[in-house]
Amino acid sequence: MAAGQFAELGLWRRWRQLPQSAQSWVLAGLIIVVMLTLNAFSAYMPWTAAHRDIVVHQFRLPASADFEYFRASTKMRRNRPDLEAIVRFTPEAFTDYFTQIDDARLWAPVPFAYDGVEIEAEYTPAAHEWTNQRPIRAGERRARWGGRVNEAFNAISNGRFFCLAIQNLEGERSPYSDGRVVYRGAACRELARNDPVFVLLLGAIDFDTRRLLVRIR
Predict the structure, then answer these.
(1) H or E element: which one contains 73?
(2) Tens digit of pLDDT for each residue in 159-189?
């Protein structure tokens, strides 16, 4: 049927009229395009896996976490992605996760690579706290959620919230005389309105839907 459709359009006939050498060049070009496409796709997959690993590690998720939604935008900078995720839990997994969110041992700081650097920050005691207060600001930034995650966030009527701001203190803002970079993590509510923020981690737990919402940017 496909050959008949080509014949009706005259394409098949034109193809048959091409010299064999020209046909070979066309086929070779198509093979190259397919190989480049497959190569790009295979390169994307581990990069996406690395993005998911950031969410898994920073929010202490089990390796079997069920990502209902995940988006990694690298429009601005490849090493500084804007990550959004919705993780759905089974009733048992949700109970296990929720009962541990206030465990300081579980939420001990975990270094992670972002913007091409390995961040090992000094954290305030309140940095990893979950509260009943919806985050609004983190220093100079607003605590914004992306499209689909924002809809889920606005629908939460019974939840807990997480807002961690990581600052890179350098130059005059560094506690060291040589101005070396120091990373400091604090709860968003601990920052003054105009404090700069290097990385912002937002989390929200919806008890009614047993979902975790995440944004890292």
Answers:
(1) strand 66-73
(2) 999 999 998 876 555 555 555 567 889 999 9
